[in-house]
Structure prediction request, 466 residues.
Amino acid sequence: MEGAELHEACGVAAVADLEEGAPQLAVQALISLQHRGQESAGVASVDGEGLQLERGMGLVSEVFPSGRPDSRAGTMAVGHVRYSTSGSPSLENAQPFTFRSRFGTFALAHNGNLVNALDLRRRLEGEGAIFQTTTDTEVVAHLIAHSRRDTLVEALQEALMQVRGGYAMVLLSRTGLLAVRDPLELRPLVFGQREGRAAAVSESCALTALDLPLLGDVAGGELVSIDPAARIKRHPGFLPAGPRSMCSFEYIYFARPDSVISGRTVQMVRRRLGEELAREAPVDADIVVGVPDSSLPAAEGFARTLNLPLEQGLAKNRYVGRTFIQPSQGERELTLRLKLVPIAEVVVGKRVALVDDSLVRGTTASHLVRLLRQAGASEVHLRIASPPYRHPCHYGIDTSNREELVAAGRDEATIARWVGADSLAFLSADGVGRAIGESGCMACFTGRYPLSVVGAGAKRSAEVGP
Prediction:
């Protein structure tokens, strides 16, 4: 994709292990979820002395160089990798957070955005709450603390009944682990189990790292509890479920290609996106070039459908992190220059069909088109395996300003001139639905939001985010 353009909120993991290796397993899960956030990482765990927390800024391997939090043992742990959608990139906002309440000490972490967080925060502050961070997560913790219900589970339920948005949330206490998904299933959450070990994580690739079979997706509004003996219990209807609206960008870009979401392997969905794109927007070209890495399956499907050779026309420096995750535009552009370079012998004199998975602000696309021309490509035709990104997302992706979106208010010919391509075509929303097998949430393409976003702009201006 336009790797420097989109930012996903984060990844979460909740792990129980009878051999007391939960903290180390949580770190392993976070390494598998590193693509979802590279700003900070943290693990909270339970051992004989109580709840312990270790977190820091940077990659998981930098925060936990030994591969475990301070070499501690423990039977239960929750972990988090973060990219801030609007809250500041600082240690105070690194998750998980720990809180003391009448229910005991608990740790909380989540992925997503709550569109009514600012209103809830103002109300809680009016009731005397003192906030230490600028995150949605702390809003939920205060709602739990303010609850008059009898148990932590009931207090969590009462808290989440008051929030609106997309989230996958994990909670750790001395008595067990809780994992819950938003009623519309906007953000992903899956679970797995074998004897003596169980986990709920953002993506199934983390279950693979934990040597756990994927048992299924947490349903919208469902709570999954894991007790200290690593036994799983499902609680459907914990929250009233709404119409299923899984984020389409999980398939298009965010998720790892080996992950399985709703029974669909991401790699295969991306290949079908390319096939649909070829049928909708064929092109006279000599070769097809995909933008590494997430666009390569779409490029393969595009090339195969049109019977064109798929070539590696762009080389990737794999020691440079995902550009979309960098906190500032300047850093993202520098990382991009270091990350992708054209292979001149492959593209010189060729009509190149450049396949990317999305086009958001357009800066990456214009940079790559320019690189290919400088390397000798005679023509560059840009094909995007998703629709024009015209509307901001308020559920966990950092595209808050419509003015920053290159497709907003522009047609394909105008965008093609802006990025310097000889032609440009997007996949339709119907094509995305056919490739995925369901429509899901496509608000960023269509402007039809599955959940009211009134007040979301004010929320972002106050820097409240996950």
Summary: Residues 322-327, 455-466 have pLDDT under 50 and may be disordered.
